[in-house]
Amino acid sequence: MNATRWTGIFPAITTKFHADERIDAAGTIKHIDFQIRNGIHGLVTCGSLGEASTLTLEEKLEVARIALEAADGRIPVLANVSETSTREALRYIEGANKLGVAGFMVMPSVVYVADAREAMQNVRTLAEAAQQPVMVYNNPVAYRVDLKPEHMVELADCKWVEAIKESTGDVRRVTDLRNALGDRYQIFMGVDDLAYEGLALGCDGLLAGVGCAFPRETVALYDLMKAGRFAEALALYRWMTPLLHLDVSTKLVQNLKLIDALVGVGSEHMRRPRLPLVGEERAYVEAVVKRALAERPEQYRSLM
Description:
Elements: E1 8-9, H1 25-37, E2 43-45, H2 57-71, E3 77-81, H3 86-99, E4 103-106, H4 116-130, E5 134-138, H5 140-143, H6 149-155, E6 161-166, H7 172-181, E7 186-189, H8 195-200, E8 205-206, H9 215-226, H10 230-245, H11 252-263, H12 279-294
Helix pairs in contact: 1-2, 2-3, 3-4, 4-6, 6-7, 9-10, 10-12, 11-12
């Protein structure tokens, strides 16, 4: 097996744009540096939260390049693969490998709903082409493809498949994976408001969304859980949970970019057809963030 063992907090970073929808390189570098200074252990570019579906292949490579520049070797940078065909995904992997990414997160095709046989073959093909560690993003709620424990058993002979981002929304899946496969894969909880539960069941890390704006708080939750300080972790998690709910939404991009703006670590600029929140939706997020900031535990506060 490959020696890579990813653990900890890996934010799925938002893609920073200017008002005219051009990629904001300076804003991206600033935001990534903010997260690294607050203790994150790695990051993933251009996932669902990163508005991958609105970016060209060349733009995704540009974001990966910017992230690598910002990280400057301090943490691993993973490139998310979500192309509409295996052919295009292979082209993207080739380009990202040339840039020097540390590995890949592989999503199902965002258009075609593959069956398990097709999805497993896609993962295997991309992993073998990458010759780099791969994390499989399993999110049947959003993408209608579910690679179950028995499918991950079949993929276990592919040495490059190192990790799973578990986003079924059913926390029992973590135990089912461990029972079927032991420690063969690193397991990252991909549902923000199941973070405590996932870590309690033995997840190796969190692939976080809200962590983009509250990185030190998210790292503290992970550290407390790994240290067995469950009561302290639970108090922190209860403070975070109203924020974490905002990631589990069809408007997660709008929600989390508004959080970034309210906290002072980003803007709301996004690519259409998405538009900034208005009316009751906006007021609700603003109220959640206002309360969170007022009650923020000072000992875990992210440093600006």
